[in-house]
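Final report, section 2: Outcomes. Of the targets proposed, Bcr/CflA family efflux transporter is the one most frequently requested by collaborating groups, and we therefore present its record in full.
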Amino acid sequence: MTDTQTRSRTVAGKLTGFTFVIILSALMAVTSLSTDIYLPAMPLMARDLQGDAELTVTGFLIGFCIAQLIWGPISDHFGRRLPLFIGMALFIIGSVGCALSTDMAQIVFWRVFQALGACTGPMLARAMIRDLFSRTRAAQMLSTLMIIMAIAPIAGPLLGGQIIKITSWHAIFWLLAIIGALMLAASAWLPETLAEEKRVKASLSSAFRNYFALLTNTSYMRFTLCLMFYYVAAYAFITGSPFVYITYFGIDPQHFGWLFALNIVGLVAVSMVNRRLVHRYPLEVLLKFAVVVATLAAVVLAVATGMGIGGISLIVVAVFVFFSMNGIIAATSTAAALDAVPKVAGSAAALMGSLQYGSGIISSLLLALLSDGTPWTMGWIIALFTAASAVMALTTRVTKTLS
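The predicted structure is given below as C-alpha coordinates.
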Protein backbone atom coordinates (compact mmCIF):
# COMPACT_ATOMS: atom_id res chain seq x y z
CA MET A 1 0.00 0.00 0.00
CA THR A 2 1.37 3.43 -0.97
CA ASP A 3 1.85 6.30 1.47
CA THR A 4 -0.94 8.20 -0.28
CA GLN A 5 -3.38 5.29 0.11
CA THR A 6 -2.42 4.87 3.77
CA ARG A 7 -2.91 8.58 4.42
CA SER A 8 -6.27 8.64 2.61
CA ARG A 9 -7.57 5.77 4.71
CA THR A 10 -6.36 7.45 7.89
CA VAL A 11 -8.12 10.73 7.05
CA ALA A 12 -11.24 8.91 5.86
CA GLY A 13 -11.33 7.07 9.17
CA LYS A 14 -11.27 10.38 11.03
CA LEU A 15 -14.27 11.53 9.00
CA THR A 16 -16.46 9.01 10.76
CA GLY A 17 -15.42 10.38 14.13
CA PHE A 18 -17.91 12.29 16.22
CA THR A 19 -15.49 15.18 16.83
CA PHE A 20 -14.82 15.71 13.12
CA VAL A 21 -18.51 15.71 12.20
CA ILE A 22 -19.38 18.15 15.00
CA ILE A 23 -16.62 20.60 14.03
CA LEU A 24 -17.50 20.44 10.34
CA SER A 25 -21.17 21.01 11.15
CA ALA A 26 -20.30 23.98 13.35
CA LEU A 27 -18.20 25.49 10.57
CA MET A 28 -21.12 25.21 8.17
CA ALA A 29 -23.40 26.77 10.79
CA VAL A 30 -21.24 29.88 11.25
CA THR A 31 -22.92 31.65 8.34
CA SER A 32 -26.52 31.05 9.39
CA LEU A 33 -25.75 31.82 13.02
CA SER A 34 -24.09 35.11 12.03
CA THR A 35 -27.39 36.29 10.59
CA ASP A 36 -30.12 34.31 12.34
CA ILE A 37 -29.06 35.14 15.89
CA TYR A 38 -29.77 38.87 15.50
CA LEU A 39 -32.96 38.61 13.44
CA PRO A 40 -35.18 39.40 16.48
CA ALA A 41 -33.01 42.47 17.15
CA MET A 42 -33.27 43.98 13.65
CA PRO A 43 -36.22 46.30 14.39
CA LEU A 44 -34.42 47.52 17.55
CA MET A 45 -31.13 47.98 15.67
CA ALA A 46 -32.93 49.99 12.98
CA ARG A 47 -34.25 52.38 15.64
CA ASP A 48 -30.99 52.65 17.60
CA LEU A 49 -28.74 53.11 14.55
CA GLN A 50 -31.30 55.14 12.58
CA GLY A 51 -30.98 53.16 9.38
CA ASP A 52 -32.22 50.19 7.39
CA ALA A 53 -31.22 47.05 9.33
CA GLU A 54 -31.61 44.91 6.21
CA LEU A 55 -28.39 46.55 4.99
CA THR A 56 -26.46 44.63 7.65
CA VAL A 57 -27.56 41.42 5.90
CA THR A 58 -26.68 42.89 2.50
CA GLY A 59 -23.22 43.95 3.71
CA PHE A 60 -22.51 40.52 5.18
CA LEU A 61 -23.55 38.75 1.99
CA ILE A 62 -21.47 41.07 -0.21
CA GLY A 63 -18.36 40.28 1.83
CA PHE A 64 -19.27 36.61 1.93
CA CYS A 65 -19.78 36.46 -1.81
CA ILE A 66 -16.54 38.19 -2.83
CA ALA A 67 -14.27 36.57 -0.24
CA GLN A 68 -15.15 33.01 -1.23
CA LEU A 69 -13.89 33.64 -4.75
CA ILE A 70 -10.51 34.49 -3.25
CA TRP A 71 -10.34 31.72 -0.67
CA GLY A 72 -11.29 28.96 -3.15
CA PRO A 73 -8.12 29.02 -5.30
CA ILE A 74 -6.03 29.65 -2.18
CA SER A 75 -7.39 26.46 -0.58
CA ASP A 76 -6.74 24.47 -3.78
CA HIS A 77 -3.15 25.75 -3.75
CA PHE A 78 -2.20 25.65 -0.04
CA GLY A 79 -4.69 23.15 1.40
CA ARG A 80 -7.79 23.57 3.55
CA ARG A 81 -6.46 24.20 7.06
CA LEU A 82 -4.47 27.43 6.64
CA PRO A 83 -7.31 29.44 5.03
CA LEU A 84 -9.64 28.14 7.73
CA PHE A 85 -7.43 29.41 10.57
CA ILE A 86 -7.05 32.85 8.96
CA GLY A 87 -10.79 33.01 8.24
CA MET A 88 -11.80 32.34 11.82
CA ALA A 89 -9.41 35.05 13.04
CA LEU A 90 -10.99 37.57 10.66
CA PHE A 91 -14.46 36.51 11.83
CA ILE A 92 -13.52 37.27 15.45
CA ILE A 93 -12.21 40.75 14.55
CA GLY A 94 -15.32 41.54 12.52
CA SER A 95 -17.63 40.44 15.32
CA VAL A 96 -15.86 42.70 17.81
CA GLY A 97 -16.15 45.57 15.34
CA CYS A 98 -19.92 45.00 15.06
CA ALA A 99 -20.28 44.96 18.84
CA LEU A 100 -18.53 48.33 19.11
CA SER A 101 -20.44 50.02 16.26
CA THR A 102 -22.40 53.18 17.00
CA ASP A 103 -24.05 53.90 13.65
CA MET A 104 -25.38 51.96 10.65
CA ALA A 105 -22.40 52.72 8.39
CA GLN A 106 -19.98 51.28 10.94
CA ILE A 107 -21.87 48.06 11.53
CA VAL A 108 -22.38 47.46 7.80
CA PHE A 109 -18.61 47.87 7.29
CA TRP A 110 -17.78 45.41 10.06
CA ARG A 111 -20.42 42.98 8.81
CA VAL A 112 -18.55 42.93 5.49
CA PHE A 113 -15.30 42.31 7.37
CA GLN A 114 -16.93 39.61 9.48
CA ALA A 115 -18.05 37.84 6.32
CA LEU A 116 -14.50 37.73 4.95
CA GLY A 117 -13.76 35.12 7.59
CA ALA A 118 -17.16 33.51 8.04
CA CYS A 119 -17.23 32.32 4.44
CA THR A 120 -14.30 29.96 4.94
CA GLY A 121 -16.33 27.69 7.24
CA PRO A 122 -19.05 26.35 4.93
CA MET A 123 -16.89 26.60 1.80
CA LEU A 124 -14.01 24.55 3.17
CA ALA A 125 -16.32 22.10 4.94
CA ARG A 126 -17.90 21.23 1.58
CA ALA A 127 -14.51 21.05 -0.13
CA MET A 128 -13.22 18.68 2.57
CA ILE A 129 -16.17 16.38 2.00
CA ARG A 130 -15.59 16.34 -1.75
CA ASP A 131 -11.87 15.66 -1.22
CA LEU A 132 -12.65 12.25 0.22
CA PHE A 133 -16.14 11.09 -0.80
CA SER A 134 -18.01 10.02 -3.93
CA ARG A 135 -21.15 11.91 -4.98
CA THR A 136 -23.66 9.66 -3.18
CA ARG A 137 -21.63 9.40 0.02
CA ALA A 138 -20.93 13.14 -0.15
CA ALA A 139 -24.67 13.86 -0.37
CA GLN A 140 -25.27 11.61 2.64
CA MET A 141 -22.52 13.34 4.62
CA LEU A 142 -23.90 16.78 3.72
CA SER A 143 -27.35 15.70 4.92
CA THR A 144 -25.81 14.52 8.19
CA LEU A 145 -24.02 17.82 8.66
CA MET A 146 -27.21 19.77 7.93
CA ILE A 147 -29.03 17.82 10.63
CA ILE A 148 -26.44 18.81 13.22
CA MET A 149 -25.85 22.37 11.99
CA ALA A 150 -29.61 23.00 12.18
CA ILE A 151 -29.08 23.70 15.87
CA ALA A 152 -27.75 27.15 14.91
CA PRO A 153 -30.80 28.54 13.09
CA ILE A 154 -33.06 27.01 15.75
CA ALA A 155 -31.12 28.28 18.74
CA GLY A 156 -29.96 31.53 17.10
CA PRO A 157 -33.22 33.53 16.99
CA LEU A 158 -34.33 32.09 20.33
CA LEU A 159 -31.05 33.08 21.98
CA GLY A 160 -31.00 36.47 20.26
CA GLY A 161 -34.53 37.20 21.45
CA GLN A 162 -33.58 36.45 25.03
CA ILE A 163 -30.38 38.51 24.84
CA ILE A 164 -32.19 41.69 23.77
CA LYS A 165 -34.72 41.07 26.54
CA ILE A 166 -32.06 41.33 29.24
CA THR A 167 -29.39 43.50 27.59
CA SER A 168 -28.57 45.36 24.36
CA TRP A 169 -28.13 43.95 20.85
CA HIS A 170 -24.37 44.64 21.14
CA ALA A 171 -24.08 41.54 23.35
CA ILE A 172 -25.15 39.36 20.42
CA PHE A 173 -22.00 40.27 18.50
CA TRP A 174 -19.79 39.80 21.57
CA LEU A 175 -21.22 36.29 21.75
CA LEU A 176 -20.36 35.72 18.07
CA ALA A 177 -16.78 36.78 18.81
CA ILE A 178 -16.57 34.18 21.57
CA ILE A 179 -18.04 31.51 19.28
CA GLY A 180 -15.46 32.45 16.63
CA ALA A 181 -12.64 31.98 19.16
CA LEU A 182 -13.99 28.53 20.05
CA MET A 183 -14.17 27.59 16.36
CA LEU A 184 -10.59 28.77 15.82
CA ALA A 185 -9.43 26.49 18.62
CA ALA A 186 -11.56 23.58 17.40
CA SER A 187 -10.18 23.85 13.86
CA ALA A 188 -6.85 22.52 15.14
CA TRP A 189 -8.52 19.09 15.42
CA LEU A 190 -9.31 18.91 11.73
CA PRO A 191 -7.07 16.87 9.41
CA GLU A 192 -5.75 18.27 6.14
CA THR A 193 -7.92 16.55 3.53
CA LEU A 194 -6.20 17.83 0.38
CA ALA A 195 -3.05 15.78 -0.19
CA GLU A 196 0.07 17.59 -1.36
CA GLU A 197 0.07 15.80 -4.71
CA LYS A 198 -3.53 16.83 -5.39
CA ARG A 199 -3.00 20.55 -4.84
CA VAL A 200 -3.01 22.96 -7.75
CA LYS A 201 0.64 23.58 -8.60
CA ALA A 202 0.06 26.49 -10.94
CA SER A 203 0.36 30.07 -9.73
CA LEU A 204 -2.59 31.58 -7.88
CA SER A 205 -3.25 33.96 -10.76
CA SER A 206 -3.70 31.06 -13.16
CA ALA A 207 -5.76 29.19 -10.57
CA PHE A 208 -8.32 32.01 -10.66
CA ARG A 209 -8.87 31.17 -14.33
CA ASN A 210 -10.64 28.05 -13.11
CA TYR A 211 -13.69 30.24 -12.53
CA PHE A 212 -14.10 30.83 -16.25
CA ALA A 213 -13.97 27.08 -16.87
CA LEU A 214 -16.53 26.52 -14.11
CA LEU A 215 -18.87 29.20 -15.45
CA THR A 216 -18.84 27.50 -18.84
CA ASN A 217 -19.37 23.99 -17.44
CA THR A 218 -23.05 23.38 -18.20
CA SER A 219 -23.55 20.49 -15.76
CA TYR A 220 -21.89 22.29 -12.85
CA MET A 221 -23.72 25.56 -13.51
CA ARG A 222 -27.19 24.00 -13.73
CA PHE A 223 -26.87 22.57 -10.24
CA THR A 224 -25.23 25.75 -8.96
CA LEU A 225 -27.93 28.04 -10.40
CA CYS A 226 -30.62 25.73 -9.03
CA LEU A 227 -29.19 26.20 -5.53
CA MET A 228 -28.59 29.93 -6.05
CA PHE A 229 -32.17 30.68 -7.14
CA TYR A 230 -33.56 28.63 -4.26
CA TYR A 231 -31.44 30.61 -1.81
CA VAL A 232 -32.63 33.93 -3.25
CA ALA A 233 -36.07 32.73 -2.16
CA ALA A 234 -34.80 31.40 1.19
CA TYR A 235 -33.06 34.67 2.01
CA ALA A 236 -36.22 36.57 1.10
CA PHE A 237 -37.85 34.76 4.01
CA ILE A 238 -34.85 35.05 6.35
CA THR A 239 -34.53 38.80 5.71
CA GLY A 240 -38.22 39.59 5.41
CA SER A 241 -39.63 37.44 8.22
CA PRO A 242 -38.77 39.85 11.08
CA PHE A 243 -40.92 42.53 9.43
CA VAL A 244 -43.71 40.11 8.49
CA TYR A 245 -43.93 38.34 11.85
CA ILE A 246 -42.90 41.05 14.32
CA THR A 247 -43.92 44.34 12.69
CA TYR A 248 -46.85 43.35 10.48
CA PHE A 249 -48.49 40.60 12.56
CA GLY A 250 -47.30 41.87 15.97
CA ILE A 251 -45.51 38.72 17.13
CA ASP A 252 -43.36 39.31 20.22
CA PRO A 253 -39.61 39.29 19.35
CA GLN A 254 -39.02 36.64 22.02
CA HIS A 255 -41.57 34.37 20.30
CA PHE A 256 -40.30 35.02 16.79
CA GLY A 257 -37.57 32.43 17.32
CA TRP A 258 -40.11 29.64 17.77
CA LEU A 259 -41.77 30.36 14.43
CA PHE A 260 -38.36 30.49 12.76
CA ALA A 261 -37.24 27.28 14.47
CA LEU A 262 -40.30 25.44 13.17
CA ASN A 263 -38.89 25.63 9.65
CA ILE A 264 -35.56 24.21 10.76
CA VAL A 265 -37.32 21.25 12.35
CA GLY A 266 -38.80 20.50 8.94
CA LEU A 267 -35.37 20.86 7.32
CA VAL A 268 -33.85 18.42 9.81
CA ALA A 269 -36.62 15.87 9.26
CA VAL A 270 -36.23 16.00 5.48
CA SER A 271 -32.42 15.81 5.79
CA MET A 272 -32.75 12.63 7.84
CA VAL A 273 -34.98 11.08 5.20
CA ASN A 274 -32.62 12.24 2.45
CA ARG A 275 -29.72 10.32 4.01
CA ARG A 276 -31.55 7.12 3.12
CA LEU A 277 -33.03 8.26 -0.16
CA VAL A 278 -29.66 9.09 -1.75
CA HIS A 279 -28.83 5.36 -1.75
CA ARG A 280 -32.06 4.47 -3.57
CA TYR A 281 -32.55 7.26 -6.09
CA PRO A 282 -30.28 9.37 -8.30
CA LEU A 283 -29.49 12.79 -6.85
CA GLU A 284 -31.14 14.52 -9.82
CA VAL A 285 -34.46 12.73 -9.20
CA LEU A 286 -34.51 13.76 -5.56
CA LEU A 287 -33.60 17.32 -6.48
CA LYS A 288 -36.40 17.59 -9.05
CA PHE A 289 -38.96 16.28 -6.58
CA ALA A 290 -37.84 18.72 -3.87
CA VAL A 291 -37.91 21.85 -6.04
CA VAL A 292 -41.35 21.01 -7.42
CA VAL A 293 -42.75 20.65 -3.89
CA ALA A 294 -41.02 23.87 -2.83
CA THR A 295 -42.44 25.70 -5.86
CA LEU A 296 -45.98 24.59 -5.11
CA ALA A 297 -45.63 25.81 -1.52
CA ALA A 298 -44.15 29.11 -2.73
CA VAL A 299 -47.06 29.68 -5.13
CA VAL A 300 -49.53 29.10 -2.29
CA LEU A 301 -47.57 31.63 -0.20
CA ALA A 302 -47.62 34.23 -2.99
CA VAL A 303 -51.36 33.82 -3.58
CA ALA A 304 -52.13 34.01 0.16
CA THR A 305 -50.03 37.13 0.76
CA GLY A 306 -51.20 38.78 -2.46
CA MET A 307 -54.89 38.26 -1.73
CA GLY A 308 -54.55 38.77 2.01
CA ILE A 309 -56.12 35.42 2.88
CA GLY A 310 -55.21 32.81 5.47
CA GLY A 311 -53.42 35.22 7.78
CA ILE A 312 -50.23 34.26 9.55
CA SER A 313 -51.28 30.60 9.84
CA LEU A 314 -51.22 29.96 6.09
CA ILE A 315 -47.92 31.82 5.76
CA VAL A 316 -46.33 29.67 8.47
CA VAL A 317 -47.53 26.42 6.84
CA ALA A 318 -46.47 27.41 3.31
CA VAL A 319 -43.04 28.57 4.45
CA PHE A 320 -42.60 25.38 6.49
CA VAL A 321 -43.09 23.19 3.41
CA PHE A 322 -40.91 25.47 1.25
CA PHE A 323 -38.06 25.66 3.77
CA SER A 324 -38.12 21.95 4.64
CA MET A 325 -37.17 21.06 1.06
CA ASN A 326 -33.78 22.65 1.69
CA GLY A 327 -32.90 19.38 3.40
CA ILE A 328 -32.82 17.75 -0.05
CA ILE A 329 -32.03 20.67 -2.34
CA ALA A 330 -28.82 21.86 -0.67
CA ALA A 331 -27.29 18.39 -0.21
CA THR A 332 -28.13 16.94 -3.64
CA SER A 333 -27.32 20.02 -5.72
CA THR A 334 -24.01 20.58 -3.92
CA ALA A 335 -22.88 16.96 -4.22
CA ALA A 336 -23.88 16.74 -7.89
CA ALA A 337 -22.22 20.06 -8.77
CA LEU A 338 -18.91 19.24 -7.10
CA ASP A 339 -18.95 15.75 -8.59
CA ALA A 340 -18.94 17.35 -12.04
CA VAL A 341 -15.60 19.12 -11.35
CA PRO A 342 -13.63 16.99 -8.81
CA LYS A 343 -10.18 18.37 -9.72
CA VAL A 344 -10.99 21.91 -8.59
CA ALA A 345 -13.30 21.20 -5.67
CA GLY A 346 -12.06 24.18 -3.65
CA SER A 347 -12.70 26.71 -6.41
CA ALA A 348 -15.98 24.99 -7.32
CA ALA A 349 -17.21 25.09 -3.72
CA ALA A 350 -16.14 28.74 -3.50
CA LEU A 351 -18.00 29.79 -6.66
CA MET A 352 -21.05 27.81 -5.61
CA GLY A 353 -21.01 29.30 -2.14
CA SER A 354 -20.43 32.78 -3.52
CA LEU A 355 -23.49 32.55 -5.74
CA GLN A 356 -25.52 30.70 -3.09
CA TYR A 357 -25.02 33.17 -0.26
CA GLY A 358 -24.49 36.17 -2.52
CA SER A 359 -28.00 35.53 -3.78
CA GLY A 360 -29.23 36.96 -0.51
CA ILE A 361 -28.05 40.37 -1.75
CA ILE A 362 -30.78 40.16 -4.38
CA SER A 363 -33.39 39.30 -1.76
CA SER A 364 -32.47 42.03 0.70
CA LEU A 365 -32.26 44.70 -2.01
CA LEU A 366 -35.59 43.69 -3.54
CA LEU A 367 -37.22 43.78 -0.12
CA ALA A 368 -35.70 47.15 0.71
CA LEU A 369 -36.56 48.76 -2.63
CA LEU A 370 -39.93 47.20 -3.49
CA SER A 371 -41.63 46.62 -0.13
CA ASP A 372 -45.25 47.76 -0.05
CA GLY A 373 -45.60 47.40 3.71
CA THR A 374 -47.28 43.97 3.46
CA PRO A 375 -46.05 40.34 3.29
CA TRP A 376 -46.82 40.32 -0.47
CA THR A 377 -43.31 41.45 -1.46
CA MET A 378 -41.71 38.57 0.41
CA GLY A 379 -44.29 36.18 -1.03
CA TRP A 380 -43.80 36.97 -4.72
CA ILE A 381 -39.99 37.04 -4.44
CA ILE A 382 -40.03 33.55 -2.90
CA ALA A 383 -42.40 32.23 -5.57
CA LEU A 384 -40.53 33.77 -8.52
CA PHE A 385 -37.09 32.49 -7.61
CA THR A 386 -38.24 29.06 -6.43
CA ALA A 387 -39.82 28.61 -9.85
CA ALA A 388 -36.50 29.62 -11.46
CA SER A 389 -34.76 27.00 -9.30
CA ALA A 390 -37.22 24.39 -10.51
CA VAL A 391 -36.49 25.26 -14.15
CA MET A 392 -32.77 24.62 -13.57
CA ALA A 393 -33.38 21.33 -11.76
CA LEU A 394 -35.86 19.99 -14.29
CA THR A 395 -33.37 20.46 -17.13
CA THR A 396 -30.60 18.39 -15.51
CA ARG A 397 -29.70 14.94 -16.79
CA VAL A 398 -30.05 11.96 -14.47
CA THR A 399 -26.76 10.21 -13.70
CA LYS A 400 -27.60 6.54 -13.41
CA THR A 401 -24.79 5.46 -11.10
CA LEU A 402 -25.75 5.50 -7.42
CA SER A 403 -22.32 4.77 -5.99
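The domain at 14-189+203-394 is CATH 1.20.1250.20 (Growth Hormone; Chain: A;).
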